[in-house]
Automatic annotation (TrEMBL):
Signal peptide bounds: none
Family matches, as Pfam families: ABC_tran
Keyword Zinc-finger found: no
Keyword terms of this UniProt record: ATP-binding, Nucleotide-binding, Transport
GO molecular function: ATP binding; ATP hydrolysis activity; transmembrane transporter activity
Source organism (scientific name): Candidatus Shapirobacteria bacterium GW2011_GWE2_38_30
Single GO cellular component term: membrane protein complex
Xref: InterPro entries: AAA+_ATPase (IPR003593), ABC_transporter-like_ATP-bd (IPR003439), ABC_transporter-like_CS (IPR017871), MacB-like_ATP-bd (IPR017911), P-loop_NTPase (IPR027417)
Keyword Nucleotide-binding: yes
Segments forming domain ABC transporter: 8-235
Protein name according to UniProt: ABC transporter related protein
Family: Belongs to the ABC transporter superfamily.
Length: 236
């Protein structure tokens, strides 16, 4: 296997949070690789280190020790400017709390990464419309994000995550704040994106959500204790 076939390579990653009184080992010597086109769920109970791992994978935070290679680039060597550029171009983020701008149309929300990415205005509009239609919100483009349901807000966030055509979609508890029938719709979209060849890394503590992935990595107390293909995958 060629090394460039891996979008993610982490080697002996540890993260220790230090406060005046306490040291917390949130990640303890974690190693794994993810190939392009995989659909991976990272599962574990609350406090197991999932969000810490997501922040490192998203180049939003750095490990205390260990190595992270994202699409062939050693993340610890990059400057802050290079990091924000990589985040904007290579990674589509989907968060539990959607992180949309309130009182702002869904169309404008979806265009934001392209404003940072320097994409011309007419092209921004076309691309934003395309992805809003793709997530089934072609009739909600002029609604503001507070005028639509939680599941719809998360679909807007997914459309926003796609506009720069990222190689990797990173989702942290994407269904944590929405009703279960809407959660299935979100998983259907992820499945479709993965069928189109996009790599998805999804963090969840819910078995019902993880079962849509093709591979499940289980973490507990900051350590991987199981990493295996999901033979019982649920296909919608
Ligand atoms: N900024 C921080 N400062 C200190 N401790 C933290 C910080 N963020 C997370 N932790 C601790 O690290 C551990 C892992 O947290 P987290 O990665 O948020 O887990 P999860 O997302 O699985 O719930 C927990 O014990 C948590 O309290
Ligand atoms: Mg978390």
């Amino acid at each position: 296997m060629k090394s460039q076939d891996f979008i993610i390579k982490v080697k002996k990653l540890s993260k220790i949070y230090k406060t005046d009184l306490l040291e917390t080992t949130a990640l303890d010597n974690v190693s794994f690789k993810i190939k392009k086109g995989e659909f991976v769920a990272i599962m574990g109970p609350s406090g197991s280190g999932k969000s810490t791992l997501m922040h490192i994978l998203g180049a939003l935070d750095k490990p205390t020790s260990g190595e992270y290679i994202l699409d062939g680039e050693k993340v610890e060597k990059l400057t802050d400017d290079e990091l924000s550029d990589i985040r904007n171009r290579k990674i589509g983020f989907v968060f539990q709390a959607f992180n949309l701008l309130p009182r702002t149309t869904t169309l404008k929300n979806v265009m934001i990464p392209m404003i940072y990415g320097g994409i011309p205005k007419e092209i921004r509009l076309k691309i934003a419309e395309k992805y809003l239609k793709m997530v089934g919100l072609g009739d909600r483009m002029q609604h503001t994000s507070n005028q639509i349901s939680g599941g719809q807000q998360q679909r807007v966030a997914i459309a926003r995550s796609l506009v720069m055509n990222p190689t990797l979609i990173l989702a942290d508890e994407p269904t944590g704040n929405i009703a279960s029938h809407q959660a299935e719709e979100i998983m259907e979209i992820f499945q479709k994106l993965n069928d189109e060849g996009r790599t998805i890394v999804m963090i969840t503590h819910e078995v019902d959500i993880a079962k849509h992935a093709k591979r499940i990595i289980n973490i507990k107390d900051g350590k991987i204790f199981k990493d295996s293909p999901n033979h019982a995958r649920k296909i919608i």
